[in-house]
Design a protein that fits this description.
By secondary structure, the protein is of the alpha/beta class. The protein has eleven helices and 15 strands. Strands 3, 4, 5, 6, 7, 14 and 15 form a seven-stranded mixed β-sheet that branches. It is globular, with a radius of gyration of 20 Å.
Length: 334
């Protein structure tokens, strides 16, 4: 079977087109013919061996492929051959022609959603949903500050927040990408490129919230941006840590939490897929409904054939992309 394989952890160049054994659906599993899979920042970490989980080698990257069920293992009753699904595979496997995975990790794709859209939305919309709905415990009318507001998770969180009725502030450092966040529905931009961010971020948020602050902060960045953002939380506000794309892993004196009655929590979404598949199913069901209602949409997406996997990975590494990159088989399919 044709697939992208990694035989040694390291650089992007270690991800090459090769052959892998043909997968078979075991008990409780489905076999999926892959049509489209997004490229994600986490793929870079896994290929480099710098993720908290190190997959066995040879490793096939690619999370969240969309495709068609073509085989069933013993005991599977929730799906049938021909069903269109999003396959949330751990730790990867989507950059291939086919893969087998537990049926509990597959989710139906709405009839009106293309495979490319489904793949584009995977991993970013579910991450945003768990950050806002589950870890952030969003209540109608609250204000959500989305850091990294021009990235994949950030743009998804902006759209999702607006669809749920939130006031959404988008934290963006690059002025050239302010428009992306605004087009996604952000009510205002919080400029992360300003000097003296420790004060300027809070001042900007307070100006948009009548001095109250943000009820929820979604933080995929960390570093000094976390240090500044926690000062912009409202009373009983919640900051959700989902990554450290800006560099340094920050630390915090916890007496600050006590004094302000605020919370900091973490989100490792892969754990939810393994430990609480019923919540993951509810997440994708709501995402599908909001998509069908036209209240959220796939992010701006560039498609590339699977053979250009290194180009896609480099674009993510160099932040040379506006929106999402989705790898398809030889032809883009609906």
């Amino acid at each position: 079977m044709r697939a992208v394989r990694v035989d040694q952890f390291g650089s992007i160049e270690n991800a090459v087109i090769g052959e892998m054994p043909e997968p078979m659906a075991g008990p409780g599993q489905v076999l999926v013919e892959v049509h489209a899979t997004a490229v994600n920042f986490v793929d870079l970490l896994l290929i480099a061996g710098r993720h908290q989980s190190r997959p066995a080698l040879p490793y096939v990257p690619g999370k969240g492929p969309a495709g068609i069920v073509i085989g069933l293992g013993d005991g599977v009753t929730a799906f049938k051959p021909g069903d269109r699904v999003l396959a949330m595979c751990e730790p990867g496997g989507g950059f291939a022609e086919r893969l087998a995975l537990p049926a509990t990790q597959c989710h139906p794709i709405p009839d009106g959603m293309s495979f490319v859209d489904a793949a584009s939305m995977a991993l970013v919309y579910d991450t945003a949903w768990f950050a806002i709905r589950e870890r952030g415990r969003y209540q109608p009318g609250e204000t959500v500050l989305v850091l990294g507001g021009s990235g994949g998770v950030g743009l998804a969180a902006i759209q999702l927040g607006k669809a749920l009725g939130a006031k959404v502030l988008a934290g963006v450092a690059n002025p050239a990408k302010f428009d992306l966040a605004l087009q996604a529905g952000a009510d205002a931009i919080i400029d992360l490129g300003r000097e003296d961010l420790q004060d300027s971020l809070r001042d900007q948020v307070y100006a948009q919230t009548d001095g109250k602050g943000a009820d929820i902060v979604v933080d995929p960045l960390g570093d000094t941006i976390f240090d500044a953002a926690i000062r912009a939380l409202a009373w009983c506000g919640r900051l959700v840590v989902i990554g450290f794309a800006a560099g340094r892993i920050p630390t915090l004196k916890v007496n600050y939490l006590l004094v302000r009655n605020i919370e900091v929590s973490g989100l490792q979404i892969g754990d939810y897929r393994k430990r609480a598949p019923e919540k993951t199913a509810a997440c994708f069901a709501e995402i599908g409904r909001l998509y069908e209602l036209g209240r959220i949409r796939a992010l701006p997406t560039t498609t590339m054939p699977l053979g250009r996997v290194q180009d896609g990975l480099k674009a993510i590494r160099d932040r040379d992309v506006r929106g999402r990159i989705v790898l398809t088989q030889d032809a883009v399919t609906a």
